[in-house]
Amino acid sequence: MFYRTLLTLSFIACFIHFSAAQFGDLRKKLQEKAAEVVKEKVIEKTDEKQNEFDTTSLNYAIAFLDKTESFQNRQDGERLVTATRFALRNDIEKTDREEARDLYELGRLSYGKRAYYIAELNLLGAKLAFESLGETTDPVYHKTLGTLGLLYSDMGRFDRAEELTKEALEGWESSNGSSSAGYAAEFNNMAVLSFSQGNLKQAERDLTTSLGQIKRVEGENSVPYAIALNNLGILYQYMGRFEEALDYLEQCIELADKELREKSSTYVQFLTNKALILQEIGDYSSAESTYKQAMDIQTSRMKLNKTSDPDYAHMLNNLASLYMVSGREEEAKKLLEESLKIYETKFGDNHLLTAGAKSDLGRVNLYQGDYAKASSLLVSSYSVFDRLLGSDHAKTISAKEDLATLAWKQNDIEKANTYYTEVLDASLNFINEFFPSLSEVEKTKYWQQFKPRFQNYYRFVADQATNKAELVGSMMNYRIKTKGLLLNASTKIRNTILSSGDDKLISLYEQWQDQKRMLSTYYSFSKEDLQEQKVNLDSLEDAANLSERKLSEMSTDFSGDFIDESVDYKKVASGLSSSEAIVEIVQIPAGALSETSAYVAIYLDQSTIELVKFDKGTEFDSKYYKLYSNLVKQKLDDAYSYDIFWSALAPKVSGKSVVYLSPDGVFNQINVNTLKSTAGKFVIQDYQVAYVGNPNDVLTKKKAKIGNQAFLMGFPTYGSSEIVPLPGTKKEVDMINSTLKPGGVITSLYTQKEASEKVVKSVNSPSVVHIATHGFFLEDKSTAGKVFGVQVDYANDNPLLRSGLLLAGSGDEAENQSFDGSDNGVLTAYEAINLPLTKTDLVVLSACETGKGEVKSGEGVYGLQRAFMIAGANSLIMSLWKVDDEATQRLMSTFYANMIQKKQDLDVAFRNAQLEIMKSYAHPNYWGAFVLLR
Q: Are residues 553 and 621 in the same domain?
């Protein structure tokens, strides 16, 4: 009806215009009177509609994936009403309140057009006007404060933005209640502001709350709800939770597709965010098509020349980022140059968007070797980030990393090292701050964002170590602090919880273990089975993940920092004797600074620290590992691998009797003891090589003995004739049992049908766990169906589901097989994590390939090795290839005899056992498959 009235007014106005000359003064007066009546009616209607908008039309901040800005939630109806009121009331005297509201409207409309200076003047004017009138409970006053908060957030003035947003939030709560639309909008804006400032922990809590608030107030089919879905999704992307992020964005776009007319700029931004997430997960094809869909819509929407449209520039930047990661540098550079011109024209040099575009373009020039252009752009962008965001903001830190790389390439090594050090220290602070609130999966993804920084620094040190030996010490310190970070974090939280005495925390921990056990059961079900039993696996995984996050966050108060800043290489070196040395292997994967991988080692003894470079390191993971693996498995003489993997280290460790080797990359998959020199001697004959997970472990695990309780299991009765029985394993555990008992060790022995998964899961931190059976690791992820009781569909992305031990009943595909998760005959690494082994000195996995898994740079092997370490085992013996039954039985029996009867320490006992077996089985295939890791 309102729009019909407006059209009638338009028609009458035209009629009046053309009638005045033809008809007399009387008719003219009648028409003017009629028009005045209609005008009054329209004003009345627009005032009613405006009053409605005062309390229902609100601004919602939108989080963008690559830049955090604010977005004006424009509504066509409101713009039309506002324009009509200005036109019709222009000649009518206005009240002071109406004047104040008009100032707000002018400021809001200017903000929507990104005319920030004019917007600020009008909004501040409106604020002062309302305050002078004493109208601080007026909803338009709250909206004025909120819009100012959004404006200042866009300008990078976060302290002022937070102050105003908080004031607006409190105003809505006081005047309209916490269940009002105004309160919901400002709560969302405060949450996005926390995100903008890098406070991810607070942002997650608030954005989750905001989603529920907006759903209640605006409904789950509203544009504000779509914005809330987007905001939470973008937060999860920053936290590395890509699957959740993509799910939220897809929900958001599905909703926005129905609710937003003419594919508004809001819809375009949602599409852009989705494209960026697709890019993050490596789906470049889908990302590019989504980018182009967004750009096509934006181009069709543009009313002005595209050179003045910052939204178009924004999309150019995003598409350029895709071209960069997919190797299309020149195409990316052209897009970035175009976007920078738009930002400079629209916003000037001192704006976050301009700085971001300069940073992106500077990075391209840096990697192309144009250091002069790169310097100008990167220095300028860093200056803006530092001034507007602060020195500790994530964007500022990232910009400083670019300056570090630039200084390195310009051969200003002192400046480069200073910048790198500041960047890495800030990254460690981020980890200490945010790790407590993340699950292990989330920690893994979060660490992946920082890991390349450390690897870039290691590449820098490797390049400069010859001239700057002190850099090696710095590199070693960062290595000690971060190597095995994820494993150490998981172990630390578990130990903290169990020793806390906090009943509530321990109860939640037990609940989480139950959820994981339930998941391990359902991973053995087919999709059809899950559907038939109405089991939603995604929901169960989400619930377990949520419990783990709560556990991690609740344990923050007494867990302390995840990274111990007090330990450095000098302290580690002081714990070494003159006959001992540490060799820290560092794999430097290919990355932005180099297309090839590299291997280096840090040699450390009491008085020396030195970097050792490996020749041919680019082929360690492929050509040379395959050569080593094939020769040892085929029992052939290997005259090559010593030269490849050890000859560079041999001069350094010469004269030492004990070498602590902290492996990385391919060194997790070879046993250096088996490398044979041209003189005919194996490394094991010259040195006692002790494998450690981190150089710092030398201080805490230097001497190791076993306690007086042993859990022994072997020779399971398998459930399928296709699984070859291992009678030698019965002889092995029987002999170990007879060796341990006279030495005062209390043993529990389980064989045949008793050698079950259920029995293993009943252990409670015995001193020794020894399991002799078949082990497996599935490297072929393309396999379909079920393998060893686990659906490969679920195992593809989780190496802990692709490795395990076969126990009694495994391979039984009978319909009555147990699916209660406790005794299906297969103990996966995923299940082994939950074993209570916090007081276990030693776990021996006397089976084939138990040391295999998915190798991750700086984090070790994801498989049984990692699972038993997280479960609490202090030391672990595992195998790298298929073992000989008879040789293994003799090796293990000798090993235990050395510890119990000869009272030898763990490392010494194991090495001497291998040397003893070598006398009967000369080839390392027989004695070298097993590695002791502490």
A: no
